[in-house]
Design brief:
SprT-like_domain, Zincin-like, 7 strands, four-stranded antiparallel beta sheet, three-stranded mixed beta sheet
């Protein structure tokens, strides 16, 4: 597992070196329940809480620079008038990108971050495949190609492929 405090301090020092006015009241942690975003920032009781998807810390194929880029994105939300992706947020984003070798995305997918999908939902009738980074829930999937509901989910890792569920 990547040391989140160490990565957070690196990201924080980048903001401080560029005089970006981030908050001093920030807590950060990995969150195993996040499924649809890489991280998020929220303000509660005058304290900013940053949650980062646990997968980013566990997967050795994901670089520390990728995690720092996501932390930088969330840190910019702690600046005054930056809880959205407006002009002020974008100006700080450009400042970091022009001075450091980090790409900060407003919205991004796994391909942008060079994260390989680990799960494949495959139609058992026509063979059509959908790829996912996080484990898809065992719900009623319908093939976009043929309309079949006969699907299976496969997990790919270094040890090979493993069937997760089938319906």
């Amino acid at each position: 597992m990547k040391n989140l405090d160490e990565l957070f301090n690196q990201a924080k020092s980048i903001c401080v070196s560029l005089n970006i006015p981030i908050s001093n009241n920030i807590s950060i942690k990995y969150n195993g329940r996040i499924r649809k975003c890489w991280g998020y920032c929220r303000l509660q009781n005058n304290q900013y809480e940053i949650d980062i998807m646990r997968l980013l810390g566990e997967d050795d194929t994901i670089s520390s620079d990728t995690v720092i880029s996501i932390i930088l994105h969330e840190l910019l939300h702690t600046c005054l008038d930056c809880m959205n992706h407006g002009k002020v947020w974008k100006s700080y984003k450009k400042l970091i990108e022009n001075n450091y070798d980090y790409k900060i995305y407003t919205k991004c997918n796994a391909k942008d971050l060079h994260i390989k999908p680990r799960y494949i939902v495959k139609c058992r009738k026509c063979g059509n495949k959908q790829k996912y980074v996080t484990r898809p829930r065992n719900v009623k999937y319908i093939c976009m190609n043929c309309g079949s509901t006969k699907m299976k989910c496969i997990h790919k890792d270094v040890n090979g492929k493993k069937l997760i569920w089938k319906n």
